[in-house]
């Protein structure tokens, strides 16, 4: 490996640019398993990975606008109108799809896994003040910054 190849490998490790990662999820179901596909397109250098993984996160958000909040500072009450927010993680899964391997340069790879959410998983809903949604994220675990798909909101 020449000096230029070493510099390129270091840049990819720092930026996560060793590969582009794409995530495809068929329609999410809380009642039955659904298929998740991860695709990777490597750059101009081979990529050594320790695993391919998917994260699935379910969370509920509540946002109530224009709440009259009272603050007590040393006996002096003050009122202020605020938005009151809260959120809660309801599902937090991390699934390894494939183990360690070396991905050849300038090639495409694809992995699939069937995912089943826990029995207590809530349906997706969107109300005026609250919502429950799911997001997914795929990544290649390698030295440096992992190439990833970024978080993608799932539909049911």
What topology does this entry show?
Layout: H1 3-15, E1 19-25, E2 34-42, E3 47-73, E4 76-103, E5 108-115, E6 125-126, E7 130-141, E8 152-153
Antiparallel strand pairs: 1-2, 2-5, 3-4, 3-7, 6-7, 7-8
Notes on the protein architecture:
This protein has 156 residues and is mostly beta strands. It has one helix spanning 3-15; strands at residues 19-25, 34-42, 47-73, 76-103, 108-115, 125-126, 130-141, 152-153. The strands form two sheets. Strands 3, 4, 6, 7 and 8 form a five-stranded antiparallel beta sheet that branches. A hairpin with a 2-residue loop joins strand 3 (47-73) and strand 4 (76-103). The chain is elongated, with a radius of gyration of 21 Å. Residues 7-16 have low confidence and may be disordered.
